[in-house]
Amino acid sequence: MKVVVTGGAGYIGSHAVYALIEKGYEVVIIDNLSRGYKENVHPEAKFYEVDLRDVEEVKNVFDKEGKIDGIMHFAGYIVVPESVEKPLMYFNNNVYSVEKLLEAADHANINNIVFSSTAAVYGEPKVVPIKEGDVKEPVNPYGESKLAAEALIRGWTKARSKNHVIFRYFNVAGTHPSGKIGIRGRGLTHLLPCVIEAAIGKREMFDVMGTDYNTRDGSCIRDFIHVVDLVEAHIKGLEWSIKNKQSGIFNLGSGTGYSVLEVLNEAIKELNIDIPNKLVGRRKGDPATLLANVDNAAKTLGWATTQQLKTMIKSEYNFRKELEDE
Prior knowledge:
The chain has about 325 residues and is of the alpha/beta class. The protein folds into 2 domains: about 1-175 and about 225-250, 3-Layer(aba) Sandwich (Rossmann fold); about 190-220 and about 255-325, UDP-galactose 4-epimerase, domain 1. It has helices at about 10-20, 55-65, 80-85, 85-110, 140-160, 190-200, 225-245, 260-270, 295-300, 310-325; strands at about 1-5, 25-30, 45-50, 70-75, 110-120, 165-170, 170-175, 205-210, 220-225, 250, 255-260, 275-280. The protein has a 7-stranded parallel beta sheet with strand order 3-2-1-4-5-6-10, with helices on both faces. Strands 7-9-11 form a 3-stranded mixed beta sheet. The protein has a two-stranded parallel ribbon with strand order 8-12. Helix 2 (about 55-65) packs parallel to helix 4 (about 85-110), helix 4 (about 85-110) packs parallel to helix 5 (about 140-160) and helix 6 packs across helix 10 (about 310-325). Pfam families: Epimerase. This is UDP-glucose 4-epimerase.
């Protein structure tokens, strides 16, 4: 089967490409490299440097590739504070690009799409763990843009009798066992890479953003899922959707919550390194607790997590150390 992976040069997209190729899929990557990296591109994948908002170019790619069995759509901006400062940019990239991708998919008669969404669509949850049917009230433009994109996809698949799988990610962490791919770039905001950068001296200090939340230690609680487990769910989701001609929405997390301070202390323990840190004020748009109910993915897709937090910490540490040595 042939699968198009948008954002396949980015963090999660590149891991999906590796997993798909390992399972024998033919993979076509579309990425404009605005935030992806050529180093992340799997050598066996076809690669097109194309912006999804250029619908004619996307149609050209689809025409060249012939029959495409499905799309995994990872491309998008994901930084919450940046979305608060630049909401128009986020809606343009995260919503308009989806509209154009669906237009091109119509043109090529592609029937299946797997979409990378986020737990940020829920906002400040009324009840935890969060179920897929719970109230969705995003508290930042990032979450709002993803919820709008979900609506576009659901409307398109209903109108065209096509199939979608929407995955709402909680906190994705860790790197590929090969050590070849991971989160690259400067000014990272993901919690675990920031902790590790402080551990290896890449940043002066790890900032614990907010210690006055209504949680067990005052810091935010998050549900961490290893990227390897996450992309396995995508493959199971695509295969389920194609086989059963069905659509679905699924949370992806571990179902276990760790506070920011607990993650920091676990990293100190696992790495045996004194990680410099300081307590600072809250970050705009951060809910106190995000914790997934993953029963739907488990029952429907037969999916479960296999990786623990300590594995995420160690793999992230090894990847960052390799980057330092390059």
